[in-house]
Design brief:
The complex is a heterodimer of chains A (466) and B (482). By secondary structure, chain A is an alpha/beta fold. In chain A, 37% of the residues lie in helices and 14% in strands. Chain A folds into three domains: 55 residues, no CATH class; 263 residues, Aspartate Aminotransferase, domain 2 (3-Layer(aba) Sandwich); 114 residues, Aspartate Aminotransferase, domain 1 (Alpha-Beta Complex), CATH 3.90.1150.10. Chain A contains 14 helices and 15 strands. A seven-stranded mixed β-sheet of chain A has the order 2-8-7-6-5-3-4, sandwiched between helices. Chain A has a four-stranded antiparallel β-sheet with strand order 11-12-15-14, covered by helices on one side. Chain B is α/β, with parallel strands linked by helices and 482 residues long. Chain B folds into three domains: 53 residues, no CATH class; 259 residues, Type I PLP-dependent aspartate aminotransferase-like (Major domain) (Aspartate Aminotransferase, domain 2, 3-Layer(aba) Sandwich); 124 residues, Aspartate Aminotransferase, domain 1 (Alpha-Beta Complex), CATH 3.90.1150. Helices cover 36% and strands 11% of the residues of chain B. Chain B contains 15 helices and twelve strands. In chain B, the strands form three sheets. In chain B, strands 1-7-6-5-4-2-3 form a seven-stranded mixed β-sheet, sandwiched between helices. Chain B has a three-stranded antiparallel β-sheet with strand order 10-12-11, with helices on one face. In chain B, β4, α8 and β5 form a beta-alpha-beta unit. In chain B, α4 runs parallel beside α10. Chain B starts with 43 loop residues before the first helix and ends in a 9-residue tail after the last helix. Chains A and B meet through α1, α2, α3, α4 and α5 of A and α1, α2, α3, α4 and α5 of B.
């Protein structure tokens, strides 16, 4: 019996102690008519060797591609020590550290994580993580609305990832919160203050400011932050933690700094893994700590004065406050945060900055190389960080398919979400991409673009392009 | 010692970063940070030793019996981790085309089918990132259902007073008012109180079965009828699914929507608090509202179902498709168990709970519901011990740590005084249960003989009992060397 240790004689002893004849008798309180039919869609069990074969075959068929996709999830080198340590059973198979004295390892690690994130974002307080970047932004919106009491609107630039805006909408709309989308500059790909300042601010709780934004473009975070604060709004910074190794952190934006910083933590030592598990982070000002959702670890002392760590401010949480809790969340992404903390410790301030700088340099090289191909142009003229938008003269979906045949996943097709920009592709080259990778992308793209350009008119008619 | 205290300026791990320091001169100064983040500057060995030592300051399933009620702390098979971390799965970017992920998507599709079978529901979406997000999705679907019928007066969600805190918190997040339904003396929902509470304002009832009191709610069919006749829907909190998997299907009990905690019933790791996965299952009438994306199979190919396929969906809950790696682990676990193994989960979880309960009762420990059969967990009440010795349940919990056992859940459910919620799970051996019973009885003896010894526990853990009041009053949540 998989993972069940009982022998037949033990079972006999145990039912005797209970005072029944068989295991079946233990289900006597369940009405007969509710007893389940046999499972029909669950196959016969496999042993480890056989399931291993199935999984290796499926993972193998998916293959490994040279990846130029970012858009919120990034391929970075992950030091071997990160997951060797993270998958130690003492981290992997522990639960939420309710019994603090038996969980000092996880608790101290979470305290170190909070400290690292606070330093990266330039804010004084961090929680122990949330599910992912998109849901962390939703939680920040809810926290801002709670803090502002009556205000129920949020300003959301369209330079924020479309899927993030969808997730926030799913999570907050049932509480009567309205998301007002802000337009962006077609030449710069940013959210200019002139456009934002047209916006009425009655009943608005907060402005969300992404840095870098979804297009990789840098926003004028200082001016936007000051504008919002002058009108009594809170500022939520949505940031890539890797970018924070180089860029001004939210806590320093404008004259007062942003009030909340959130984002996707995946870049810090978590594999791409088809989208999860990742982790979200949230840091904030001291004044907002009681609006913070999720677990928070505090340092304290034991009865002998020895420093130790424990979950704190639990009066915000669902298991105490029930319907009046800040959120229903119970999770912190403990295992992902374990990886991230070890990652940041291994990289250190200099290593993290070098990784960020190399990602940026590689993306710059990629954009320059691809931008020289006929039919391909770099779209925005503003400063950027490690990601950029290309406009093509061809449909991105066909180009991406042709690249995939060459073992390259070439970017994200933006034409569905931003049709006014034409045939656009969001691309990224992290520190894991070599000169040869970039050259290979350029060569293949050039060939694909020229081949399509040379297609006879009849072929274009078939494709419906004329 | 904190990792920061090992730090020495200018120390670097040159093998973990690009060798060259790439120029970023094209980024204007005004966008750059003025000083580096204060991350530790430590060697690789220092990091490995520090976090290895930290890990040794944890209790975990791999090292200790962990009978934490309601949390289903069973063995997390190593194969699930190994085969979910194959490069083809780990390296795949979530925005890659479906053609690069057919193997991965086949696993998810089959997991959807397995979960539909196990729960007796018509559709399953795997996207919720944890149990609480599954609850959110479920209640949001209830709301979307009533809205789609222009039935806008259903403003109230009913929850039993013994419910998990997430139930009322979720109802609030979905914009509902919460009304609590009392529990009767047997631990069942007070059916008359429920009958009096339902009406045209009732959106739904959230129920855990077996309940948080560890007993099977025998009136479930009657409860379902009452709620349905009032026009409400029935929500199944799958926290305790481990107790009935293969024995009863929530769909057969009349539930319209359910979430499952894969980190409980499907044995994915708890990881110190996460990640989890909280798929939702629904019956016919809620199918159009399931969260996206889901996996469909067209011919021999797998593709994502999106807003184009499900325009009434409550929407997306994460940037990707959910906690993919957790779902793969659950899938591998389900395949290792197979249908016959799945049936045994509830049988042996229930056997272990009832054996441990019987053993403790026979040795004089009080149960909150002595007349009821335990499902996969049961409630001990130590009120008599407190009255006799002054030793409270938390003291006993801390003393258990000294004996090498993680404490059961303490002070939940809230309505039983001085309680422990004990859930042994099916993966523990009889020897482990006997050892735990001996330890608990030993502590009760100690409490009578030397209450101070128990009240000052733990004595052998890395720290003694921590000052939680100080932690909350003099908040220190970020290290500061100044």
């Amino acid at each position: 019996m998989p993972f069940i240790p009982h022998t037949e004689s033990e079972v006999r002893e145990m039912v005797e102690v209970i005072g029944v004849d068989s295991i079946d008798d233990l289900f006597e309180e369940i009405p007969e008519k509710l007893r389940a039919q046999a499972l029909s869609a669950v196959p016969q069990g496999l042993n480890e060797m056989d399931i291993g074969r199935v999984m290796m075959e499926r993972a193998g068929s998916d293959g490994v591609y040279v990846n130029f996709i970012g858009g919120g999830a990034y391929e970075h080198h992950i030091p071997a020590a990160v997951w060797e340590l993270t998958t130690r059973g003492e981290f992997y198979s522990a639960y939420t550290p309710y019994q603090a004295e038996a969980s000092q390892g996880t608790l101290q690690l979470l305290y170190e994580f909070q400290s690292m994130m606070a330093s990266l974002t330039g804010l004084p307080v961090s929680n122990a993580s949330l599910y992912d970047g998109a849901s962390a932004l939703a939680e920040a919106v809810l926290a801002a609305v709670r803090a502002k009491k009556k205000a129920t609107k949020i300003l959301m630039p369209r330079t924020i990832s479309p899927v993030y805006r969808q997730v926030v909408n799913t999570i907050v709309r049932n509480q009567g919160i309205e998301l007002i989308e802000l337009p962006f500059s077609e030449s710069g790909g940013h959210t200019p203050l002139e456009m934002v300042s047209q916006q009425a601010t009655d009943d608005v709780a907060a402005l969300v400011v992404p840095q870098p934004n979804f297009f990789g473009v840098l926003e004028d975070v200082g001016a936007l932050t000051d504008w919002a604060h002058d009108r009594g709004l809170l500022v939520i910074g949505l940031v890539n933690p890797m970018a924070m190794a180089l860029l001004e952190p939210p806590g320093s934006w404008g004259t007062q700094g942003a009030d909340i910083a959130v984002g996707e933590g995946q870049a810090l030592g978590v594999p791409l893994s088809s989208g999860g598990p990742y982790f979200g982070f949230m840091c904030c000002n001291q004044s907002l700590i009681r609006q913070m959702p999720g677990r928070i670890v505090g340092r304290t002392v034991d009865t002998e004065g020895t420093p130790g760590y424990t979950l704190t401010l639990q009066a915000r949480e669902q298991h105490i406050r029930r319907s009046k809790a800040t959120s229903n969340i119970c999770t912190n992404q403990g295992l992902m945060v374990t990886a991230a903390t070890i990652y940041m410790a291994l990289l250190g301030p200099d290593g993290l900055r070098r990784v960020a700088a190399q990602c940026h340099a590689n993306t710059r090289q990629l954009l320059d190389a691809l931008g020289q191909i006929e039919g391909v142009e770099k779209l925005f003229d503003r400063p950027f960080f490690h990601e950029g938008v290309l406009r093509l003269t061809q449909e991105p979906v066909a180009v991406l398919r042709a690249l995939e045949a060459q073992g390259i996943v070439g970017g994200i097709d933006l034409s569905g979400d931003y049709p006014q920009m034409g045939h656009t592709l969001l691309v990224c080259a992290t520190e894991t991409r070599t000169d040869a990778d970039i050259d290979s992308y350029r060569t293949h793209l050039e060939r694909i673009m020229s081949r399509r350009r040379l297609d006879p008119p009849c072929a274009q008619k078939v494709a419906g392009n004329v | 010692m904190l990792i920061f205290e090992l730090s020495e300026p200018t120390r670097r791990n040159s093998s973990q970063a690009p060798l060259e320091d790439a120029a970023v001169a094209d980024i204007p100064q005004e966008f750059l940070r003025n000083e580096p983040a204060s991350l530790p500057e430590v060697s690789e060995l220092q990091v490995v030793r520090h976090y290895t030592r930290l890990s040794q300051r944890n209790f975990s399933i791999d090292t200790h019996f962990y009978p934490l009620g309601s949390c289903t702390m069973k063995y997390n098979p190593r194969a699930c981790n190994k085969y979910a971390m194959l490069p083809g799965f780990l390296m795949r970017h979530p925005q890659s085309a479906v053609t690069t992920g057919q193997g991965f998507m086949q696993c998810l599709y089959e997991l959807q089918e397995i979960l539909k079978d196990v729960t007796g529901m018509k559709g399953v979406s795997l996207t919720p990132l944890a149990g609480a997000q599954g609850e959110f999705a479920g209640v949001a679907m209830i709301r979307a259902y009533h809205d789609s019928r222009n039935d806008h007066n259903r403003s109230e969600i009913l929850v039993p007073d013994a419910a998990h805190g997430t139930n009322p918190a979720t109802a609030t997040m979905c914009g509902f008012k919460v009304r609590e339904i009392p529990t009767d003396d047997n631990g069942d929902v007070d059916v008359e109180a429920l009958r009096a509470a339902v009406g045209p304002h009732t959106a739904g009832l959230m129920l855990t079965n077996p309940s948080t009191l560890g007993i099977f709610e025998g009136h479930i069919s009657e409860i379902a009828d009452i709620v349905h006749q009032a026009g409400g829907l029935l929500y199944y909190d799958g926290a305790n699914l481990n107790a009935i998997v293969g024995k009863v299907k929530p769909g057969d009990m009349g539930f319209d929507v359910i979430h499952m905690n894969l980190h409980k019933t499907f044995s994915t790791p708890h990881g110190g608090g996460g990640p989890g996965a909280g798929p939702v299952g629904v019956n016919d009438r809620l199918l159009p509202f399931l969260p996206i994306p889901m996996v469909a199979r067209d011919g021999g190919e797998y593709r994502w179902l999106t807003e184009h396929d499900l325009p009434q969906s409550i929407g997306r809950l994460s940037a990707g498709m959910g906690n993919a790696g957790v779902l793969l682990r659950a899938y591998i676990y389900a395949r290792l168990l197979g249908k016959e193994g799945m049936n045994r989960v509830a049988e042996y979880a229930t056997l272990n709970a009832n054996y441990l309960m019987a053993l403790l009762r026979s040795r004089g420990v009080d149960m909150a519901y002595p007349k009821r059969r335990a499902a996969h967990e049961f409630i001990v009440t130590l009120k008599a011990l407190k009255d006799e010795t002054g030793v409270i349940a938390m003291d006993v919990a801390k003393r258990l740590l000294d004996k090498g056992y993680h404490a059961p859940t303490v002070y939940f459910p809230l309505l039983v005084p001085e309680c422990f919620l004990v859930e042994p799970t099916e993966t523990e051996s009889k020897q482990e249960l006997d050892g735990f019973a001996d330890a608990l009885l030993g502590i009760i003896e100690e409490a009578r003989r030397d209450p101070q010894l128990v009240q000052s526990a733990p004595h052998t853990t890395p720290v003694k009992r921590l000052d939680e009041v100080k932690a909350a009053r003099e908040l220190d949540v970020v290290w500061n060397d100044g």
